[in-house]
Amino acid sequence: MTRLYMKKILFLCLLFSILGSIHSIWGRLFLTNTKPIKTDHHIIEIKRAVIVPKIDGKMNDPIWKKVIWHGFDQKWQGSQYTFNDFFGRYKLAWTPEALYVLVEIKDDIFYDANKDPLQFWWNDDSIEIFIDADNSGGNHLDSNTAFVYNIDFYGNVVSNDLNKKPIFFNNHITTKRTTQKDVTVWEFEILLYDDTYIEGNVNDPILLTAGQKAGFAIAYNDNDNSLQRENFIGSVFIPGQEKNTKLQNADNFGTIILKE
Predict the structure, then answer these.
(1) Can you give the CATH number for the domain in which 101 is found?
(2) pTM for the full model?
(3) I want to staple 186 with a disulfide (CB 3.0 to 4.6 A). Which of 5, 103, 110, 171 is the partner?
């Protein structure tokens, strides 16, 4: 075997070894930086508001006359309820600065027993709003890839921080409610934040544009006179049991699409 032939064999072995290493490294990087893509479901296309809604707990803004109602029609937790006990519906709109939600709730008994808004807030009648700004899905329990807000009768916006400690997020949502007899109307102006959000820092909300998708769901905590909430009634179908636990994964949020 000639010396030239041996050099060629050694060169080819070295080349294959280098190519194999590159393939292995690329494979590890690719697998590390990819994750399953959320499958869109409960898709709602929402209109842009030319005139920004006035957050006054009323339904007389021009945009609310142009868009349709959607229902709170999924029992996520609790026993079966009747129309006399609860009925809920909501509308959606957007501007480049914020997402807007109009909610109408008919509830025969409004329950507000926990005076500390940072304690057991889910056991009082309240609204919960689920937002995944980039619709990326995935588990958000230990990150800010999605947000879950609880809003009580007084406009307090509460959620857990990354240390599982309840804190106020009142600067994320502006809200106003009005009540007549057993019907309450809420209006919400919601600023959206992406996964670069860091608690305690100055964070800029994202600007919204036509064609953008976001993960969204909304629910009502209903309690008539119990130590714990009696019903958790949401806007999207969640298969199986332990629906509250499954909401820790933003894949289970619905999808809204911003339209002109």
Answers:
(1) 2.60.40.1190
(2) 0.86
(3) 103
